[in-house]
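Why do we care about 3D structure at all? Because function follows from shape, and shape follows, mostly, from sequence. That is the central idea of this module. The next example makes it concrete: a single protein chain, its amino acid sequence, and then its structure expressed as tokens.
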Amino acid sequence: MNTKLFGTFAAAAYIMAAIPAFGQDTSTAGVQFNQDGRPERIFIPVSGLNNSDMNFLKQAAIANMFEIESSKIAQDKGSSAFTKEFSKEMLADHTASLEEMRLIANAKGFTLPQDLPGPQKRMIEKLQSLSGDAFDAAYAKFQKGGHEDASMAFKHEIANGQDQDVKAYAVTTLPVVTMHYKMVLTGKTMMGDTRVKDGS
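And the structure:
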């Protein structure tokens, strides 16, 4: 082989090895590689609230507070077995959900609303003025609409949110929202006399 040509190839190979590809990050932190050397997964956690995150935290906090307040009233004024059991489960689930939200919001330096806005306050006042079957019907109506709105808010956050912790909350809580909505539609709860039985 021509020694001069071999030397030229060797020098070029050395230079190319020393220069990283244009625009390529040579850091391997957080990167897992396949056996053939290709990166398998790159995961860079994103922390920090965008507009979707902040709007979602506000809406979800209001939804949780409304569920808690309306279900407290239902425990006292509800007349059907379903209303009694459903509201009991709503109290437990949404109290835990709101506490989880508060921990996330505090960690992000975001202040959640402390009071219900006008529309939700008026619904609470409406419930307080009713009793018997009329109360049960109004409570079920508000629950259906509230969980429909919540489902859309959670799906929007999953698609458009930025902060990994807020999005994770949305992802893990959406199935619970869906379950609550199904309970309202079917008149079946998870426990008590109105629980789902035999897969029905």
